[in-house]
Design goal:
Helix content: over 70%
Strand content: under 5%
Number of helices: 6
Order of helices and strands: HHHHHH
Structural class: mainly alpha
Oligomer: single chain
Length: 137
């Protein structure tokens, strides 16, 4: 089970590839489908929100660090929160971009361009919020 779970995390683009090929094979659905673009939007927004929450948690832990045993635990929490935030930023936003690219290859509907704009806003927002929160340390 762990191998399957880890494989799904590492090879997240295969699901997008399968959905794209399935929709592409059906001519009627190919012209009207917007599901890949919607999935890209949802994944980008959720990734940006979760990154901001992890960075907030990391900043919270960093402000509580003292030179005691509990301070070491807060330091460990800070490192883990920042690393999880970075991993979600890369994994979530790259995955969302893959869905958006497949949507734009599938058909030239406006949902692809809207999803791409939202993706850029989420990427910029996640980075900006992270920089502001880290500046509070």
């Amino acid at each position: 089970m762990a191998r399957t779970w880890l494989g799904n995390i590492i090879r997240f683009w295969e699901k997008a590839d399968r959905k794209y090929n399935k929709i592409k094979a059906d001519e009627a659905q190919k012209e009207t489908s917007v599901s890949l673009g919607v999935r890209g939007i949802i994944q980008a927004v959720l990734s940006a929100v979760v990154v901001a929450l992890f960075v907030f948690g990391g900043v919270f832990c960093a402000t509580k660090i003292e030179f005691e045993l509990a301070g070491l635990l807060y330091l460990l929490g800070t490192i883990i929160a920042f690393l999880c935030g970075l991993a979600i930023l890369v994994q979530g936003l790259v995955g969302a971009l893959i869905f958006i690219i497949y949507q734009m290859k599938l058909n030239k509907r406006t949902i692809g361009w809207i999803a791409l704009i939202i993706w850029f806003l989420c990427l910029g927002g996640a980075i900006a919020v992270s920089v502001v929160l880290i500046g509070l340390i």
